[in-house]
Amino acid sequence: xxxxxxxxxxxxxxxxxxxxxxxxxxxxxxxxxxxxxxxxxxxxxxxxxxxxxxxxxxxxxxxxxxxxxxxxxxxxxxxxxxxxxxxxxxxxxxxxxxxxxxxxxxxxxxxxxxxxxxxxxxxxxxxxxxxxxxxxxxxxxxxxxxxxxxxxxxxxxxxxxxxxxxxxxxxxxxxxxxxxxxxxxxxxxxxxxxxxxxxxxxxxxxxxxxxxxxxxxxxxxxxxxxxxxxxxxxxxxxxxxxxxxxxxxxxxxxxxxxxxxxxxxxxxxxxxxxxxxxxxxxxxxxxxxxxxxxxxxxxxxxxxxxxxxxxxxxxxxxxxxxxxxxxxxxxxxxxxxxxxxxxxxxxxxxxxxxxxxxxxxxxxxxxxxxxxxxxxxxxxxxxxxxxxxxxxxxxxxxxxxxxxxxxxxxxxxxxxxxxxxxxxxxxxxxxxxxxxxxxxxxxxxxxxxxxxxxxxxxxxxxxxxxxxxxxxxxxxxxxxxxxxxxxxxxxxxxxxxxxxxxxxxxxxxxxxxxxxxxxxxxxxxxxxxxxxxxxxxxxxxxxxxxxxxxxxxxxxxxxxxxxxxxxxxxxxxxxxxxxxxxxxxxxxxxxxxxxxxxxxxxxxxxxxxxxxxxxxxxxxxxxxxxxxxxxxxxxxxxxxxxxxxxxxxxxxxxxxxxxxxxxxxxxxxxxxxxxxxxxxxxxxxxxxxxxxxxxxxxxxxxxxxxxxxxxxxxxxxxxxxxxxxxxxxxxxxxxxxxxxxxxxxxxxxxx
Length: 751
Description:
Layout: H1 12-15, H2 27-30, E1 42-46, E2 52-58, E3 65-71, E4 77-81, H3 83-89, H4 99-106, E5 113-115, E6 121-124, E7 131-134, E8 139-142, E9 150-155, E10 161-166, E11 169-174, E12 180-182, E13 197-199, H5 204-209, E14 216-218, E15 224-231, E16 237-242, E17 249-254, E18 264-271, E19 279-281, E20 289-298, E21 301-308, E22 313-320, E23 326-333, E24 346-347, E25 353-358, E26 365-370, E27 382-386, E28 394-401, E29 406-411, E30 420-425, E31 431-433, E32 440-445, E33 451-457, E34 464-469, E35 474-479, E36 492-497, E37 503-509, E38 520-525, H6 545-556, E39 560-564, H7 574-577, H8 586-602, E40 606-616, H9 618-629, E41 635-639, H10 650-657, H11 664-669, E42 682-688, H12 697-708, E43 714-718, H13 728-746
Parallel strand pairs: 38-39, 38-40, 40-41, 41-42, 42-43
Antiparallel strand pairs: 1-2, 2-3, 3-4, 5-6, 6-7, 7-8, 9-10, 10-11, 11-12, 13-15, 14-15, 15-18, 16-17, 18-19, 20-21, 21-22, 22-23, 24-25, 25-26, 26-27, 28-29, 29-30, 30-31, 32-33, 33-34, 34-35, 36-37, 37-39
């Protein structure tokens, strides 16, 4: 079978073969810029017409790169923007001021460039300033120069204007000239609180916990903009301190912790020509709510999702923007669980049907609804049919081909550890697998739905990028460097049983025979929370490819490495995920210990007296919980843990535990600070001082509790580092410390 095309442009950084055989992994090579597998293409984007796509390819250092454009039908490629121009239009991350700014681009996927609707221009926003690049002439023109950042730029649908958020208000600038307009003018009633009203801007907690990437949208005819206003006046602040200057600087981050006041939100609609007073929409009598998704159905008609604070009930509203009237057309409540907000609402071409995903049958599946197109606010939408069904999770709608009667979805129908692309029939009669290889496929369809880009990997093969047709035939775009010279070990997938009989998926990496000994020390790598599944047939499933390779290196040194996904982790059915409802720690640890006990029965060469546990973020919290609630572990490494759930943000924490006043026992039982006196084993505690996600305060409070309890431990702070403790130098330092700690605690005195 011939591929739909071939692209003969494997970049130098991706095709240099490994000359030497039997190369050894080192921490320096694993965490070098670009890593061992090479730096993947960045900011891959389709043009609006679906005829081409583009991406930035940088060298391993990340300092030098070009923007490439590819004809999606012929495979013809060319450098659209050379290194010199790109350095100004899209500078490397090393030029960003600090880690928080870098995370805005990487963790929250701030767009570095956008295609105009007619594909004649590219819009760049380096360091918050806007540049318009004309494709034919190759000329870039800067049209903002204020030191304040211009955020979330967008082209209007007609391509004549560029909108953006500036000083918490909405503006636009004309593409053809110097015309501009300010659309909203809120400064706050109190001059000392002028930054508390955000118009169209996304705050931290919405970005982190609801995956919101934009809070304003143009109407299809470019005449209006609908936006979310967030009032953060009552939201408490957390001080992020820069200790590396003579006089420390403090940045006060708005951050609602569990039980705190959240930002109040409302939708406004403003004239996109001249602005003026917005028309405000009233959606619910409840003041304490979330609006995680909204957008346009057509001119004059909006849709919006409204989520209650308990996050167990969601409503879909249709809104007449002329009158401001809103009507709830669909409502769902999840008993003894929560609503998992997704991006699956999609209007079909006829304008009277939409797609909607739901957990209602115990699995996340896709449904089709119909409404009265001529009078959409007249009544509730009518369920026509369930489109997908079965013992699997549907992860998202990727594209719809309504003439063919198909919707493309990603799911784990074949194996809970995989991600595959399927075509489901809109009439609900069945599904056909499109992606060919077993493993994990992350896809992005062209706007016309005729083809898709596929980032594919497996547990043992690093990523490659392919361009595929809807028949599943693919052509290569980019491949990671070969790792054949390293002779990597192959992990084993295993299955265990929780105490209630639930199947738990695990993974074991054993040392090579030449270093394996009769009694092997064991490293348990854990995450254990509802935000991540570690046991997957994917490269970098442990959190990043570098973390995976570090565990590989430890196995080569004579450690067995074990991972299991306990109940409460994602990608399984509702019963599996909601087992942790109203508590954090006990169910998860019971599953970890049950699997570990069964593992020792299967592999008697493992030494149950020399077991360490380590994790990051929720995995660090699990590490501390395990060390304070069991004696199964000789040592543990906790990087950036939540140590008491009163200290974490409202949306995430309350989704699973409820509010502190309603579940005081759940919060108390899940506090590692309160259990500090029960610490068993050696502890290495690590945190970045500028962590704006899991605050440094968590480790400070844990340290104080351990000191008061007379418990010895090691503590390492990384100055001005955020949650990921990013950067080659810092990562090398951190993982050498973890390596030395684990070797010292598990191998000392053993031959």
